[in-house]
Amino acid sequence: MTRHYSVLLQESIDALNCQSDGIYVDGTLGRGGHSLEIARRLQNGHLYAFDLDEQALAESAQRLAEVGDRVTLIRANFAQMREELNARGVMSVDGVVMDLGVSSPQFDDGERGFSYRYDARLDMRMDQSQPRSAWNLVNELDEKELSALLWKYGEESYSRPIARQIVRARALHPIDTTFELVDVIKKALPAKVLNKKGHPAKQTFQALRIAVNGELESLETGLRAAMSLVKPGGRIAVITFHSLEDRIVKETFRQASSVEKTDPRIPLLPSQIRQPDFRLVSRKPILPGEEELAENNRSHSAKLRVLERIGD
Asked: Which residues bind S-adenosyl-L-methionine (predicted)?
């Protein structure tokens, strides 16, 4: 079993303020780091954990064996958490945690095609049963669609030349592997970019992964589902790893914790002044501490935002 380092683990668990009889949701089970810590704090409570990755579910089931029947594993996207929980008779919860992005074992398993560090068939599917993979996007989208995808999901400044080079290369033969795609990307970039720190394919690979798995759309739906489920006093803790995710979480939480200002000249009773249903637990994101940053390089881009329901 590949070791997975759960980023901002203690901070996110503390943020949930777990109650021993509470009902909690881990929207991104992964290898069970957050789920195990939540379940250990439960006595009469229960945890529902979601993941699309069959391998992650199997490995986590072993890791969570120590907490017995306090956890229910659900093979589904967290965007479906409301429907899945309602089907099990759960209409509200005390907290939700979501650790977004790809887990270390998924990156480190070369055969999954997530990483530019290993040569493998282009894949990047979190749900191995879905038909569309990164191979389909790279080899089937037209140049304009590819360029738009790389800009939207990867914020890649050279999206147009990369898309153009991909189309040229695949006209000779399909781009089948991660290393083949990396070579194509390098040919499209100027020397000043290739000489910069960081891998030149990083943003392209990010864009393809997000598009393949519909990550941003699922995030927006999942946040709405979490807010509809959480009880007064309950909290939603979300860990993001790049600006696209963080922007969605930040804006969603901002809107939920604010209301339209009323004209101060209009006389209103206190009971007539609308209050927000949620509050930000901290206005700025919670970041990893120095010790965690030293232990795990992947923690550097992590941000934790926390929202608490205060309305009925």
From this structure: 32-34, 51, 78, 99, 106
**Nearest Cα to Cα of residue 184 among 161, 207, 150, 203:** 161
CA dist 310 and 304 (Å) reads 20
Distance CA 46, CA 22 (A): 7
E strand or H helix at 232, and its extent? strand 230-240
Return d(Cα 204, Cα 206) in angstroms, integer. 5
Task: Name all domains of the chain by residue range, CATH numbers in brackets.
Answer: 9-99+215-309 (3.40.50.150), 113-213 (1.10.150.170)
Q: Which residues are annotated as a binding site?
A: 32-34, 51, 78, 99, 106
- Indicate the annotated binding residues for S-adenosyl-L-methionine: 32-34, 51, 78, 99, 106
Alpha helix ranges (H) inside the chain: 9-16, 33-40, 54-63, 81-87, 104-108, 134-140, 143-154, 159-172, 178-188, 191-194, 202-213, 215-229, 243-256, 290-295
Q: What is the pLDDT of residues 5-41, one digit of tens each?
A: 688 999 999 999 999 999 999 999 988 999 999 999 9
- The DSSP output letter for 43 is S
Closest CA to 181 of 116, 109, 91, 251: 116
Q: Does the pTM of the predicted model rise above 0.85?
A: yes
Each residue's pLDDT tens digit, 191-229: 999 999 889 999 999 999 999 999 999 999 999 999 999
Return the half-sphere exposure (C-beta side, CA atoms, 13 A cut-off) of residue 238: 28
Cα–Cα distance, 141 to 81 (Å, whole number): 31
**In angstroms, how far is the first alpha carbon of the chain from the final one?**
44
Q: What angle do CA 107, 113, 116 make, to 5 degrees?
A: 70
Cα–chain center distance at 143: 28
